[in-house]
Amino acid sequence: MNLQAIPLGLALFIVIPLACGLASLVLGGRSSAPGRLAAARAATLAGSLACLLLAAAAWLGGAVPARLELAWIPSMGSSFSLSLDGLSLPFLALSGLLGAAAVLASWKGIGERVPSFHFCLSLTLAGINGVFLASDLFLFAFMWELMLVPMFFVIDIWGHEGRHRAAVKFFIFTQAGGLLMIAAIAGLYAAHGAATGEYTFAYDRLLGTAGGLGQTLQFLLMLGFFAGFAVKLPAFGLHAWLPDAHTEAPTAGSILLAGLLLKTGGYGLLRFAIPLFPDAARAFAPVAMWIGAAGILYGGLMALGQSDMKRLVAYSSVSHLGFVLVGAYSLNEAGRNGVVIQMLSHGLSTGALFMLIGSLQDRIGTRELGRMGGLARAAPRMGAFGLALTLALLGLPGMGNFVGELLVLFGAFKAEAAVAVAAGLGLILAMAYALRMFQLAFHGEAKEKRSVADLSAIETGTLALLLAALLWIGLYPRPVLALLSLALPGIAGGTAP
After folding, report:
1. pLDDT at residue 101 in the model
2. Where are the domains of the chain?
3. What angle in degrees, to the nearest 10, is found between the helix axes of 457-475 and 380-393?
4. pLDDT tens digits, residue range 31-59?
5. Which DSSP category does 235 fall into?
6. Which of the 8 DSSP states describes residue 79?
7. Mean pLDDT over each residue of the chain, to the nearest integer
8. With left for phi above 0 and alpha for psi between -120 and 50, is residue 113 left, alpha or beta?
9. What's the CA gap between 97 and 109, in Å, rounded?
């Protein structure tokens, strides 16, 4: 499919979720009638599926690269500029898939303010898609903020007992990082204007600007971008918001947080922080790689000591996404490819895990491992998916996580062998906490006598689709790697030209 042949084709990735979110408000209204609430849910589901089909059609039809540019704020040098390439397209597909999974996971679990909930989900997805497409830095900052506000409400209104504290912590951390990034964008805008007389937010015009700046200014601007993306990733030392946000968010919120919002941090490093400031990135690379390695080990150790399943998976995310920093700042093709595979695979595996944990909590009323046991006998389908996702979590060959981590380690060995060794130790910790979780939850004797309903047909089908995508990446990563070769200049080689 040639998206440029469709009027405003690329904008559909943003317009469709917005339109479907508004439709959910209209269809649901203030009624509590089951039919109207089902219509509100269906509208949001339709929006995610439409975006997934649009991404699949663009992928299969070879529609990359594609670009849309419309006049927006010409007095500021800002345009409504969207670009689709081999880096953004896989994440748009992931957004559509996990957006649909989030709606299905909350179909029965959310019973209050259903239209508003699905409007917030749709608004978050529209912002995420905009982040993955924006090639104007002012538009990028706008979309970055757009995805944060509705997610705050998803956690604060529909979350669990400690939702207010978790939502405020999420907002403070991510907003502080976002403000540092916006300040760096403004600094780069001003520096480019002073040097060339052209004040613009266009990404392709700003590439290469940093080369004419002083080393100190370039480094400070790079740190501003890095801070915004590292908070969202999150990097070690900036991760304090994540465990609470994951634990207290509703299931759909956890799926979008782990599967998509965290990925915008890694995407931002690959798209903006490194290509815009190549010299500063090279100088900062050893520090960034060691921060990543520290996150891998710290997150693994913390996950090993958790008794709450959601909190365990949250700390495992700190560990697994440490590989993103290590791979991105290896500044070579193997590391870059590993980062993308790792983020896609982590999004699929943790999205599925949070859906499974949410289904389990709905049935037994707890996420505490000490109150579980024997669930594989009581609910065989749940046990089978629990085993498969545990194997993905520990990086079993055949799963996408294995491919991503292996490529990152290859890239790290070329750049900083000691970091690769430290990161490799994290894989041992992953085996320990993943197998401990599965053993305590699904095997042994049941700690409490209860009857547990197995997964429904919809839950089974959704988890099977996510697992199939994970296996596809693990067994045949070539299509994703081929797409990355079609990335915009400055991405394909790992640094800006």
Report:
1. 95
2. 277-497
3. 30
4. 777 888 889 999 999 999 999 999 999 88
5. P
6. E
7. 90
8. left
9. 19
Residue type, 203: Y
Distance, in Å, from the CA atom of 145 to the CA atom of 12, rounded to the nearest integer, reads: 19
| The token pair that represents 196 in the structure block | 């060339």
Residue 285 confidence (pLDDT) above 70: yes
Instruction: Give the helix/strand (H/E) hosting 81.
Output: strand 78-84
User: Quick one: which of 479, 478, 291, 312 has its CA closest to 394?
Assistant: 312
Instruction: Name the token pair of 292.
Output: 């990543």
* Residue 139 tokens, joined: 């538009």
Grouping H, G, I as helix, E, B as strand and the rest as coil, residue 69 is strand
Residues 165-212: pLDDT tens digits?
A: 999 999 999 999 999 999 999 999 999 998 888 899 999 899 888 777
Nearest to residue 122, comparing CAs of 146, 157, 138?
146
> Does the N-terminal peptide bond of residue 65 adopt cis geometry, omega within 30 degrees of 0?
yes
| Mean pLDDT in residue range 329-335 | 93
DSSP 488: P
Position 493 pLDDT exceeds 50: no
Residues 6+ apart with CB under 8 A from 212: 195
AA identity, residue 432: A
Residue 71, strand partner residues:
79
CA distance 101 to 440: 26
Q: Which two tokens stand for residue 248?
A: 């207290």
Residue 490 has pLDDT above 70, yes or no: no
Residue 54 has which token pair? 């649009």
Q: Cβ distance 448 to 371 under 8 Å? A: yes
Which structure tokens are listed for 4? 């440029």
Judged against a pLDDT cut of 90, whether residue 30 lies above it is answered with no
